[in-house]
Design brief:
This protein has no helices and 13 strands. By secondary structure, it is mainly beta.
């Protein structure tokens, strides 16, 4: 059996349910459910990549980066959903049920070539089912011209060079490239 009960104002993140039943003969039975946890905070999600104004290449692999935090009890191992949309259109799923790793490599559909005003959003669901959402700035997708660099090399940092980034706010990466198109950039990929 069940009954709806009013929820009192609770200032704690813990609660307890105790059920007492009386039969017609005034015999009492008691059930103590024990302590349960109350999670009313929504996760906070920030999407940092793709950055506002970026241009991605259709068919290419591009990084989606985010942070998702939960003030209470955290996330399951399948808490993240990632979607994209063009302009103010409907959201289209990229990935569902992935871990809150902060990064996902997305192969941009070739059908998006020539699109502008795209956004990526990340939804994070905590253990209590609260969902937080964050979205990227707007970006564009261009077609792969097939004329990428004929040669490219990173000149700094040198291969196997050890660099201390603990106190750095920026680090200059240098490269040389022979390229026949003005559309190129530097990606940020997790190791």
């Amino acid at each position: 059996s069940s009954t709806a009960v009013p929820i009192p104002a609770i200032s704690s993140d813990k609660g307890r349910i105790n059920v007492v039943a009386n039969d017609a003969g005034r015999q009492t039975g008691e059930l103590d459910y024990g302590t349960f946890y109350i999670d009313s905070s929504v996760p906070v999600v920030n999407v940092s990549w793709p950055a506002d104004g970026m241009t991605l290449m259709a068919g290419g692999q591009h990084l989606i980066k985010w942070t998702a935090t939960d003030a209470d009890y955290g996330f399951s191992s399948t808490a993240i959903t990632i979607d994209y949309r063009v302009g103010s259109g409907a959201w289209t799923n990229i990935a569902t049920g992935i871990a809150n790793s902060g990064a996902y490599v997305w192969t941009v559909p070739t059908s998006l070539a020539g699109s502008t005003g795209l956004q990526v959003r990340v939804l994070a669901e905590d253990y209590a089912g609260n969902v937080g959402t964050g979205a990227s700035g707007t970006f564009s997708v261009i077609a792969d011209s097939g004329t990428g660099p004929t040669s490219a090399s990173i000149t700094a940092p040198a291969a196997s060079e050890q660099i201390d980034l603990a106190a750095a706010t920026t680090y200059t990466i240098q490269w040389t490239a022979s390229i026949s198109s003005a559309a190129y950039g530097v990606g940020d990929y997790p190791l």
